[in-house]
């Protein structure tokens, strides 16, 4: 079974939508699914950071602008599901720029909400995992670049071969009980100081 479907009852949901019959039905349906849900209106200038999923009404008004500004400034990594009343270029652009993973159209119906919740959570989890993987790979690549730079410094300053430079860095790291990256950074920093 899909992890997001299995864990759907642990999801914390915040709904940014004016109080009306549709919002009440949306909140009731999310509760029936088993999620903890809170409706917020009017929006404040600070975005809620404790939500896993945010349903947000997108329309061309000041409230949407306030929410988008708060969302941009928020450290929250909540999954965003857009609620749209009609499709206009401005609304579509706002939804895309905000990073919405799914949409719910008005009039809101109970059918499809569970699917939207589960799929949006699945997509968000995949995206977060991919971003973490990219960060790790970038860090590893930076480490390789530092190693190459440190080897080049030892080769030019000490006349070492590439293998001798690598072995020197490795042996210094082992004797100091630190990573090779720490030794490479030290060599690069020392070269920059001496190079002044």
Automatic annotation (TrEMBL):
Residues 127-188 form the ANTAR domain. Pfam families: AmiR_N, ANTAR. One of its GO terms (molecular function) is RNA binding. This is Antitermination regulator.
